[in-house]
Specification:
- The two termini are 32 Å apart.
- 42% of the residues lie in helices and 17% in strands.
- The chain has a single domain, classed as Divalent-metal-dependent TIM barrel enzymes (TIM Barrel, Alpha-Beta Barrel), CATH 3.20.20.150.
- The longest helix is centred in the last third of the chain and has 24 residues.
- An 8-stranded parallel barrel has the order 1-2-3-4-5-6-7-10, surrounded by 5 helices.
- The protein is an alpha/beta fold.
């Protein structure tokens, strides 16, 4: 199939007739899997897919360099607007108000009218010192909250599995105790919550996160056993072990103001740039069909 014909077919398949008017209109596409493409190429892809816009990476290795955000983010915004899109949120590496590029990135986002962003990750260098780590991270979050209030921004703290502070929703919420909830909230990820609590933990975590829920990320995964033991492998939506039958009703019952970010963490494949573009488009169209069906049923 020719690339032009494929794009039209994928776009038509990606937009079902009965998409949920509220949830569906908030879907954006995380741009990590299209690193190496220009913002114009990504904008054309997203326009064909019919999403609101990108969850734009403004961090090291992202589509916009943090150090150059003051000049590059307005250019990126103009590119997406030319395709009839917005930038609903950005993904950053920000972990502290004192990070070298924090104010550059946040001021650029505020000027561009981008109100939501994902924070970077503080780490448990020594898990035995979890209390001290949580206390130190809370101090950082309070300083970031001050910046957010000044710039009218809202940050989401992601429950990323592993050694990240916030990997478990209970420590995420503990970090945010006393932090202005109008400035920093929860960026909930059912897949990451399933990794840390696969049976009931993810469900309880979602319910605990709801009062501070700001935005949601969607992805899927399986566990695989290899030479180094059990590891996670990312999959297309619906092909992993995330309990979508229970996730979607919870999401639809939740009240939260921010975007819904769809992540393609697996490699769509492709040897040439054209093949990579087409495979990325195909993967996004497939996952969007699943996501929109779940949010509209």
């Amino acid at each position: 199939m020719r690339r032009r014909d494929f794009l039209g077919a994928a776009a038509a398949a990606a937009v079902p007739a009965a998409a949920a008017p509220d949830m569906g209109s908030r879907i954006c596409l995380f741009t990590d899997h299209v690193a190496g493409f220009s913002n114009l190429e990504v904008a054309r892809m997203l326009k064909d897919l019919g999403v609101t816009g990108p969850d734009l990476t403004v961090r090291k290795g992202g589509l916009v360099s943090p150090a150059q955000a003051a000049t590059e983010l307005p250019k990126a915004l103009a590119t997406y607007r030319e395709q009839g899109l917005t930038i609903p949120m950005i993904t950053t590496g920000i972990t502290s108000a004192g990070d070298p590029d924090t104010e550059v990135v946040l001021e650029a986002a505020a000027k561009a009218g981008i109100r939501y962003y994902k924070l970077g990750y503080n780490r448990y260098a020594d898990v035995a010192k979890w209390q001290e780590t949580i206390a130190a991270t809370r101090v950082k979050m309070k300083e970031i909250a001050k910046l957010n209030r000044r710039l009218n921004l809202r940050a989401g703290m992601h429950n990323h599995a592993g050694d990240s502070v916030g990997c478990c929703v209970w420590d995420n919420l503990e970090v945010l105790q006393g932090v202005d909830d109008a400035a920093i909230g929860m960026y909930f990820d059912p897949a990451q919550a399933t990794i840390e609590g696969g049976k009931m933990g993810w469900n309880l975590s979602f319910r605990r996160a709801m009062p501070r829920l700001l935005m949601i990320a969607f992805k899927d995964f399986i566990w695989e056993k290899g030479e180094k033991g059990w590891r996670t492998r990312w999959t297309p939506l619906g092909e992993g072990i995330v309990n979508w039958r229970e996730v979607f009703p919870l999401v639809k019952s939740a009240v939260f103001p921010g975007p819904i970010s769809m992540h393609i963490e697996y490699d769509p494949g492709g040897k040439t740039k054209t093949e990579r573009y087409d495979r990325a488009m195909e993967a996004a169209a497939r996952d969007l069909r699943f996501l929109r069906a779940g949010l509209s049923s």
